[in-house]
Amino acid sequence: MQQYNIHAAKTHLSALVDKAAGGEVFIIAKAGKPMVKVIPYSSQKTVQKRIGFLKGKIKVPDDFDRMGKNEIIEAFANKG
Asked: Which distant-in-sequence residues (6+ apart) come within 8 Å of 43 by Cβ?
């Protein structure tokens, strides 16, 4: 992997951007110490769509909003 110092990177910024856009990965260093890794930007979305990923795999009962109703009433009715 190629390494460039900051001065060279500033001087040749346009050429380095073209290299990165072409898929080349390189390091920019300060006083010989690697500081950043430059990689090409990908415009493709890498985030997976999560909404609806269980659609068709789970069956919600029709009485879902009433499940446990009696137990809840009893739990609060005895507090007093």
From this structure: none
Closest C-alpha among 57, 23, 59 to residue 41: 23
Phi, psi of 55 (to 5 degrees): -60, 130
**Beta partners for residue 3, in sequence order:** 27
Dihedral over alpha carbons 50, 55, 57, 62 (to 10 degrees): 130
Tokens of 34: 């690697």
pLDDT given for residue 43 in this prediction: 64
- pTM of the predicted structure, to 2 decimals: 0.53
Cβ neighbours around 9 below 10 Å, total: 21
Domains of the chain: residue spans and CATH: 2-38 (3.40.1620)
